[in-house]
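Course assignment 3, question 2. Fill in each field.
Student: A.L.
Task: Predict the tertiary structure for the chain below.
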Amino acid sequence: MTTTTVDLNWASVNIDSADPARLANFWGAVLGRPVRPGVTPGTMTVDAPDSGSGLQMIFHAAAAAGSSTGGYRPTLLTDHHDAETERLTGLGAKLVNSAYYAPIRLTVLADPEGNPFNLATWQSE
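Answer field:
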């Protein structure tokens, strides 16, 4: 068997959207990151963190956005679950469900186009 050295990292998450500017502005506000036009017409990006680590988010125009998650659901981690839930819903997210799966408190929200994402907090039992 041959061993192969792999040097890959995630660079971006590409998301289809009915309104790329609106959705990029939502996620930019959620993550506290700058939003810019993408390199191709009609796309918008949310910058990766200043440290250069983390993912850039790229939003592409698509007529049927929000109809399927394609198996992807971002999870955001926080130590301030209630405050972040309030902030996210204030930005336009909709509360879908909340649960506690020891030791993780999990809230499922949906962005303004209905795409689900998780907010998680590690809690002691």
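Instructor remarks: The mean pLDDT is 85. The first strand starts at residue 12 and ends at 17.
Grade: pending
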